[in-house]
Amino acid sequence: MKIAIVGTGYVGLVSGTCFAEMGVNVTCVDIDKQKIENLKKGIIPIYEPGLEDMVLRNQQAGRLHFVTQLTDCLNEVDMIFSAVGTPPDEDGSADLQYVLEVARTIGKHMSKHQLIVTKSTVPVGTAKLVKNAVQEELDKRGVSLEFDVASNPEFLKEGAAIKDFMSPDRVVVGVETERAKELLSKLYRPFLLNNFRVIFMDIPSAEMTKYAANAMLATRISFMNDVANLCEIVGADVNMVRKGIGSDSRIGTKFLYPGCGYGGSCFPKDVKALIKTAKKYGYDMQVLRAVEAVNDKQKGLLFEKLTNYYNNNLTGKTIGIWGLSFKPETDDIREAPALVLIDKLTKVGCKVRVFDPISIEETKKRLANTETIKQIHFASDMYDATVDADALMVVTEWKEFRLPSWEVIKKSMQKALVFDGRNIYDSNDMKASGIEYYCVGK
């Protein structure tokens, strides 16, 4: 089977590479010529454990190809996956210009039956827009060709994307014809050997499933952060509360960890888009508006704790920060809590020393043309970030931060003061080490 995947961002590159790993002949398409040239050389534009080796292996096997024009492979493939970006517009709705451009390109150049599968995260109703865009181009050409559309949203976790794709909890597929169902069943048949589920449904339900899943996970995070904040006020320990409610089989333990807010490319964008979609249809997503508000406030939590500790006098203070990416095992800093924290600290006159195992270069690029970067020292390692610091803030729970040498850190810092935004340390151990320690929800 031959397929094309348009877009070599996170979703497109991981999906294309994993399909190739299972024996599918895959052509990945991207208009970014430099990115495609780099991919041909084995230079990967994102950090994802195991991805680089898999890309190289499948290129060498002749199953994975990279081109800059969809027309180079369009009429050789059985289906086209659209995995282009859907960035948020200024009003929070998903921008579908790239999705519809792919559809128009297909309509302009297709010469046989095509199955067009949307893999990008898109609002309910997008498949109809895609279908209309293709048909409009066919009508302009005066050509009568049959085609199908489908929805196959991704549920990949950054840092574990390959495992998620190769052994997923489920694969959601929205179709409206038996022909589309048969083609996608054939594509996913090799994965069935791993005994996972392919769930077929109508297209609007598939489109909604992706948004609803991310919105639910974001809700759990914001709920626990709200509970954690109340725990601090009333004298409860959120870690105990988390274990207590997580033992209920109806609730479970996942996504019940309090912290300094969620970030990334999915949760913030998808919550906003779902709120906007509802508003478009005259419905108010009250719970999700609260989820978003709690998260926005939570990203400032560590700054508030620091401000209170130093009685609103932070000018000239040096603050160490461990972790820049929104989560471990990725270089993704989109909507990262660390960026909010850095912005707040530099605005009140703090000097900031930051370290992250992977995301330093991405952060430098993001802040390159800002005044903020002048107040930042990009540390060579985690201990360099603590030199002469008046406080250390742990923002991302990278594994290498879990068992540091506190004796070294105490000697390095001006004040042995730690604000743990991910609750990765034991308060009794910290006290025994001579560290003044503050976490979330305790």
Structural class estimated from helices and strands = alpha/beta
**In sequence order, what are the helices and strands, one letter per element?**
EHEHHEEHEHEHEHEHHHHHEHEHEEHEHE
Our count of helices gives 16
Measured distance between first and last alpha carbons: 55 Å
| CATH T-level topology of the largest domain | Rossmann fold
Structure, described:
- The structure is a single chain.
- By secondary structure, the protein is an alpha/beta fold.
- It folds into three domains: 2-201, Rossmann fold; 211-297, NAD(P)-binding Rossmann-like Domain (Rossmann fold, 3-Layer(aba) Sandwich); 299-438, Rossmann fold (3-Layer(aba) Sandwich), CATH 3.40.50.720.
- Helix content is 42%, strand content 14%.
- The protein contains 16 helices and 14 strands.
- It has a six-stranded parallel beta sheet, sandwiched between helices. A six-stranded parallel beta sheet has the order 11-10-9-12-13-14. A two-stranded parallel sheet has the order 7-8.
- β1 (2-6), α1 (10-21) and β2 form a beta-alpha-beta unit.
- α1 crosses α3 (51-60), α4 runs parallel beside α5 (126-141) and α8 packs across α10.
Question: How are the secondary structure elements laid out?
Answer:
Elements: E1 2-6, H1 10-21, E2 25-29, H2 33-40, H3 51-60, E3 64-67, E4 79-82, H4 97-109, E5 114-118, H5 126-141, E6 147-151, H6 161-166, E7 170-174, H7 178-188, E8 197-201, H8 203-234, H9 238-246, H10 267-280, H11 286-298, H12 301-309, E9 318-322, H13 337-347, E10 351-355, H14 360-367, E11 376-378, E12 391-394, H15 406-412, E13 417-420, H16 427-432, E14 436-438
Helix pairs in contact: 1-3, 4-5, 8-10, 8-11, 10-11
